[in-house]
Write the structure tokens for this entry.
Amino acid sequence: GSEYLVEYVRNWLVTDGRFTDAQVFGGGLRVYTTIDWNAQQQAYDSIREVLDRPDDPAASLVAIDKNGNVRAMVGGYDWAKSQVNLATGSVGGGSGRQPGSSFKPFALATALSEGMSLNKTYEAPGSMTLKLKEGGTWKVANYGDAGLGTLNLVDATVRSSNTAYAQLINDTGSKPVVETAHKMGVSGDLPEVPSVVLGTGSVSVLDMAAGYNTFQREGNRIGPTVVTKVTDAKGRILYQAPTAGEQVLS
């Protein structure tokens, strides 16, 4: 299951700008990665064992440690059938996938950074038509049209209420939420529209792992890092990955 990873590293060497094609393809470079091969094998096995039927959906997996190092990257089920790396979105030749409700915490982080209290409440009916500050209306519904009563921001997150979060992004604005996601590690293009809070934009698995790692690091963003060091044949360091993070949230 490492073919996707090897291709990712090769593509990074070619597109990074630090190395010539002659260096990359001519031999002599020593490339050090962050991959834990035991974790890589477990990640690959977990996909193969769960999605073991011909009509099962595709899957990918990325595991990042607290230092931003990618410990495992599985880009797909079978390299022989598809060379599109599902873990890296457009970088891997694909288009990304919609993150759904896993995108909501970026809106929550935005609201808190704007000074909103976790105790702020919203009515969370099963469905509603919301008048948008940005113009127009938006009809939105909870999963199964479930009415959830009055929720503060903590409970709205626990219950993953679409109607509550629709009102939240209407208060914060779409652009600040997209900016927060980008600051936290989501590199893909995201639409600056209210529905982005429900995960209608396209992201990569790597992006989401990187963004959530910023939460784990209490607002300090680092990585994601796959290549830690590159040397020439004589051991001279040509590239060293940064080890310092950036505080992007309080």
Observations:
- The mean pLDDT is 94.
- DSSP finds eight helices and eleven strands in the chain.
